[in-house]
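re: that chain from earlier
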Amino acid sequence: MFAPFPLTIDTKNVFLAVEKLLCNGEYLKPQKYGIALRRQKLFTSVPNRIYDAQEKDKEYILSQLPKKLLLLEEPKLWVMDIRASQEENSMLAPHIDFVRLTTVNFYSNTNGERTCFYEYGAGGAIEEIGSFVAKDGEAWVLDVSKPHGVELIPGKVRRVLSLSFITTPYERVMEALS
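^ sequence. v structure.
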């Protein structure tokens, strides 16, 4: 579901200013998982925008990865920009990622926000099954084919550099990292 990334990758000079990057996706509406959670608790759903990282940044990050991992698939490098509303209970609603199976997220501007994973329980209610709070500078591997969301801090911007594996399942990425 999720685990700390076991390697150290230098990301400090990677360009994250989204104003100069090409937006490749914008996710505005909650999926069924967010709708199910809204029946149980009040929150404001916020959009998520994904940008293509610069090619030089992608090459730099990929050059630091083990060959065993790159033999599985050459991952995409994206920048996620999540802007919380000013309202309390602002959230990137629970969702699955349709365009990728696994991600390695390199975090900056985490604001102490909590990433949660969910599953459907008895009676169709959605239940939290695990969570973590990433610190700035940390990296985590996530199975984004599973429902997940982020509890946001009002008025803050969350910025994540995301190494995206489109076709490689979480278990195979973790195996290549061991």
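The chain has one domain: 2-11+21-177.
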